[in-house]
Design a protein that fits this description.
The complex is a heterodimer of chains A (436) and B (218).
Chain A (H helix, E strand, L loop, with lengths): L18 H7 L4 H6 L4 H11 L11 H7 L9 E6 L9 H7 L1 H15 L3 E6 L4 H16 L4 E4 L4 E9 L9 H8 L23 E5 H13 L1 H6 L8 E8 L5 E6 L4 H8 L9 E5 L19 H6 L8 E6 L4 H15 L5 H19 L5 H11 L9 H15 L1 H10 L20
Parallel strand pairs in A: 1-2, 1-5, 2-4, 6-9
Antiparallel strand pairs in A: 3-4, 6-7, 8-9
Helix pairs in contact in A: 3-4, 3-6, 5-6, 6-9, 13-14, 13-16, 14-15, 14-16, 15-16, 16-17
Chain B lengths: L31 H10 L12 H12 L4 H11 L3 H8 L13 E6 L2 H5 L2 H12 L12 E6 L11 E3 L2 E3 L7 H11 L8 H5 L19
Parallel strand pairs in B: 1-2
Antiparallel strand pairs in B: 1-3, 3-4
Classes of the chains: A alpha/beta (436), B alpha+beta (218).
Bound molecules: flavin mononucleotide (FMN), iron/sulfur cluster and FE2/S2 (inorganic) cluster.
The site of flavin mononucleotide has 24 residues of chain A, from helix 4 and strand 5.
């Protein structure tokens, strides 16, 4: 049975981002109209029955998250849309905002109604300025048309959607760090509990949701929870966007159901490995998750399927690696990222990432010692589980995972005193500057 | 001093919290246009939460002046009604704020995995060779600054280079020298590498977009 895209069906048509197009082709704002005829609790129940799971990384059930939002309080409540999208290998949210912005705006409004909020802030990463321009103009149009603002559809429901531009920090994607950043501080996570559902933005009850998650909400309201759940395997319902990058012939964002296997994604959707080279490994869910090997490609690319195979679906950022990729180099490349992006709040993460990077750099330069392998292992294990947020575990993952699967490559670096797989796409001179 | 027999504690040269603050600089106030923009943005947040507008306030100042001096940060502090130390705290954390002069065009080369797999290291090398500078440096004419940045969220269009706020996708190492020549010759008109601009022929997207901040470099 062929899968028909719902989130991205029209994205390749010109003007798909306009309000007119949305009204004509996507039953624009009918979901919001319908939502306002039932109680907020009904919406939460519908989303719960649909089984929608957060698309931001953790896969937490959205309905449940909304249910936890404290209702019995005089305080304001908020929706924060997480459009930080900084996980390496992930690039789906900006496609939605760029090509289908009204779906997100409608999703924000319905979500606000569901949890009793009047304001949604879309926290968009600073580098997405061209996307922000489109989104801002379309929000303006939604106001003019009466889909945002005061007394929407005469229901008495008021809703404002504002954009908040970040300024370059991966850690701002973590939900409590996002809230701190929205409050005008450094993007450093808070100690949990209290969870944002109880004390989030301005210490008020808050739900933080990913862009893709919120885009699914109007679809659930319009087509029903049953329809949504049936699109995918049990507990993994709905449409899913997959980001495929790295060594593939047709990198890009592909929408599929979570029945789809990793093999289908790589070989059917993305056209197979670049130059038809052998596949060495894949990263199935953004840089923070363990690697999978070619013999594991026939599992469904669902939250549960990938977890069973020993990795995580995360943000569904598939990075495909061909046989020219040196795994020590790969770990070094990613640790450069984590070392740079660590917010510095906890010592194991702040120091550990720097140490890991230095050891990997030493190995890659050919100056590694045999005890460096134990050192890598020791330092990684002193980060995992000992930090304030999930960043720490994420940072140690590339090291632990490549050491587990490709230990021989690490040993070869020490033995031969050089990188054993220098690829043509690498710099001619080693770029070990990294002074920032 | 280190508490670990094998490792040095981070001298933290790389860490954003260690960046040196700028000299005080010329006296700074917003242009009337930027002041009006700030006054408008601040209304998006509850009245007692002016601090939420700090990133926006800093962007306005940076676009007006090219980078953030201590005088500019003090002005932002007055606008936000917080202390200058609060502003410095924020500025030193985020990578998109500059505390010293940068070139007219800041070339941000993505160096993270997906881009690196398709030659980002070579792109940095070629740009650096063409301009005679290393990552982190500005050329002698003050026109270009070369920076390596982390994943820009467009990994399917690798290698990606962001020039100021404009994206250039699929910039191969071979195209780098011509790209620089093109910017030198045509300035901002050379920024044609974003898929939105490439598609603009049919569905015009740029026409109804927002205006850059007053006094912006673009
Ligand atoms: C270090 C770190 C970075 C994160 N970055 C993002 C991000 O860029 N975008 C995102 O949607 N979620 C990100 N998350 C996940 C969020 O914390 C949060 O789980 C998510 O926004 C919740 O939305 P969801 O339930 O709709 O998935 C990140 C988490 C961590 C620990
Ligand atoms: S784990 Fe790292 S990123 Fe997370 S709070 Fe600690 S130092 Fe910051
Ligand atoms: S790795 Fe370069 S944009 Fe993601």
């Amino acid at each position: 049975m062929a899968y028909e895209p719902v989130l991205t069906k029209h994205i390749n048509e010109p003007n798909s981002y306009t309000l007119d197009f949305y009204m004509k082709n996507q039953r624009g704002y009918e979901g919001l109209r319908k939502a306002l005829t039932v109680t907020p609790n009904d919406i939460i129940e519908q989303v719960k029955t649909s089984g929608l799971r957060g698309r931001g990384g953790a896969g937490f059930p959205t309905g449940l998250k909304w249910q936890f939002v404290l209702k019995d309080t005089p305080k304001a409540r908020y929706i924060c849309c997480n459009a930080d999208e900084s996980e390496p290998g992930t690039f789906k949210d900006h496609v939605l905002m760029e090509r289908n912005p009204h779906l997100l705006i409608e999703g924000c409004a319905i979500s606000c109604y569901a949890i009793g909020a009047k304001v949604a802030y879309i926290y968009i990463r600073g580098e997405f300025y061209h996307v922000q321009e489109i989104l801002e103009a379309e929000i303006e149009k939604a106001y003019t048309a009466g889909y945002l603002g005061k007394n929407i559809f005469g229901s008495g429901f008021d809703c404002d959607v504002y954009i908040h531009r970040g300024a370059g920090a991966y850690e701002a994607g973590e939900e409590t760090a996002l809230i701190e950043s929205l409050e005008g501080k450094r993007a450093q996570p808070r100690l949990k509990p209290p969870f944002p559902a109880v004390a989030g933005l301005y210490q008020c009850p808050t739900a933080v949701n990913n862009v893709e998650t919120l885009c699914n909400v109007p679809l659930i309201v319009l087509n029903g929870a049953e329809w949504f759940a049936k699109l995918g395997p049990e507990k993994n319902g709905g449409p899913k966007l997959y980001c495929i990058s790295g060594h593939v012939k047709k990198p890009g964002v592909y929408e599929a159901s979570m029945h789809t296997t990793l093999r289908e994604l790589i070989y059917d959707h993305a056209g197979g490995v670049l130059g038809d080279r052998p596949l060495k490994a894949i990263i199935p869910g953004g840089s923070s998750v363990p690697l999978l090997t070619p013999d594991q490609l026939d599992i469904p690319a669902s939250f549960d399927g990938v977890q069973k195979a020993g990795s995580l679906l995360g943000s569904a950022g598939l990075i495909v690696l061909d046989d020219t990729v040196c795994m020590v180099w790969l770990a070094m490349n990613l640790l450069h990222f984590y070392r740079h992006e660590s917010c510095g709040k906890c010592t194991p993460c702040r120091e550990g990432c720097d140490w890991l990077y230095k050891i990997l750099q030493r190995l890659e330069r050919g100056e590694g010692r045999s005890k460096d392998l134990d050192l890598l292992f020791g330092v990684s294990n002193n980060i995992v589980g000992k930090t304030l947020c999930a960043f720490g575990d994420a940072a140690a993952t590339p090291v632990l995972s490549t050491m587990k699967l490709f230990r021989a490559e690490y040993e070869a670096h020490v033995r031969e005193g050089r990188c054993t797989l220098p690829a043509a796409w690498r710099a001619k001179q080693p770029l070990f500057a990294g002074a920032h | 001093m280190s508490f670990h027999p094998e490792m040095e504690y981070a001298p933290a040269k790389f860490h954003r919290s260690e960046r040196k603050l700028a000299e005080p600089g010329e006296p700074f106030t917003y242009t009337p246009g930027n002041q009006a923009r700030f006054d408008q943005v601040v209304t998006r947040y509850p009245a007692d939460q002016r601090k939420s507008a700090i990133l926006h306030a800093l962007y306005l100042a940076q676009n007006q002046q090219g980078y953030l001096t201590a005088a500019a940060m003090r002005h932002v502090a007055e606008q936000i009604r917080c202390t200058p130390a609060d502003v410095e705290d924020v500025v030193s954390f985020y990578t998109m704020f500059y505390t010293r002069p940068v070139g007219t065009y800041v070339l941000n080369v993505c160096r993270t995995l997906s881009c690196a797999l398709l030659g980002a290291e070579r792109v940095t090398e070629e740009l650096g060779a063409k301009l005679g500078i290393k990552p982190g440096e500005t050329d002698s004419t003050g026109t270009f600054t070369l920076v390596e940045v982390e994943c820009l969220g467009a990994c399917d269009r690798a290698p990606v280079v962001m020039v100021n706020d404009d994206w250039h996708e699929g910039l191969s190492p071979e195209q780098c020298a011509t790209f620089i020549d093109d910017i030198r010759a045509r300035g901002g008109a050379a920024f044609t590498g974003c898929h939105l601009k490439k598609e603009a022929g049919s569905g015009q997207q740029a026409a109804d977009s927002g205006q850059p901040a007053e006094g912006s470099k673009k």
